Each structure stands twice: as C-alpha cells, then as structure tokens.
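Onboarding guide, step 5: your first structure request.
Type a short instruction followed by the sequence, for example:

Predict the 3D structure of this protein.
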Amino acid sequence: MSPSEAKKKIFQATKELVTAGKTEKQITTREIASRAGVNLALVNYYYQSKENLLSQVVGTMMGEIIEQTDQDEPTETDAQSRLKDMLVATADAAFKYRNICKIAISLELKSGCRNSCKLVLPLLKEIFTDAHESDLNIMALQLMIPFHHIVLNPEHYNRWLDTDFFDREKRKQKINQMIDCVLVKEVSL
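The system replies with structure tokens like these:
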C-alpha cells in the first residue's frame, strides 16, 4: 500500500467511526489503524495526533454539510441576510449531525474559534465597511462563541433564552435575534 493510500484509508476509517456515532473519547488510534488495515504508528505519522486527525475529518465533514445546506437553500443578497442564513443553516446541520458537530465545535472552541470567525468575517466586512479589523474580530467572537455553546448544550440555554433550540423555527428566530442584537449594538458604537 502506498503512503497516500494509507493516509486516505486512515482518514476514511476515522470518518466511518465518526459517522457511526462514536464520540471523540470512544475513538482510539488503535481502532482507527485496525479499521484502516495499517500499522498503528502510521496514524500518528500522518496526522501527528488523534485530535488533529479528528479535526481534519470533522472539518471536512462539516464543510460538506454546510456546502450541501448552502446548495439546498437560496441566499439573500444583502450580507446581514446571508449571515443569518449561514448561521441558521449551520445550526440546522449541527442539530441534524449532533455527534459530528459536538466534536467539531469542541475542537473549534479549543482553537479560539478561528475557523468559524473566518467564515463570518467577510460578511461582517460587507456590513461594516469602515470598521477596524480588531472590531470585526470582536463582533465575530460575539456571534460565534455563544452560537457554539448553544449548539453544544442547547438544553442549558433553552430556559435562559426562553426558546426551544430543538425546534427549527424557534431556533431560527433566536439565532436571528442574536445576530440582530450584536449587529445593532455594533452599529450604535
């Protein structure tokens, strides 16, 4: 087996374990290597750590989910509507694929929300054309950190935010309200 084949088999085996509903803690490098039919040492050789491998696999899967969701729903023309559509679509995917998203979000929070903030920054730049980069970064964090925590533990936020995040329409309404609150606050500053 060539090195590129071994790397692909490791990636695919990990993807299968995640898709099967296993959590980050339930997936072991030994199980990944066994399923891929490779030596255990190759998992760390190609991916440096289980966390890095899971991050890549789940990142790819989330990208596929978001891309599919984007294709399924028409987008509005203004940046604020597109921002709302993107976050609602992401939340819908997160609730549909809870296991995958819990892994992705927990890894994203560990990395300081950089990837998710990068997704919303272009839209924030369109909305606030004269804002400084550091202000846009703060706005992105104000949107993404609570968003991630709500998706990870919706039960904790249902009562606090007087909604049911498991109900799509109520979730959409609350996400839109969150975005409006952050953007209105920033406009007035």
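Each response can be followed by summary notes, for example: The mean pLDDT is 86.
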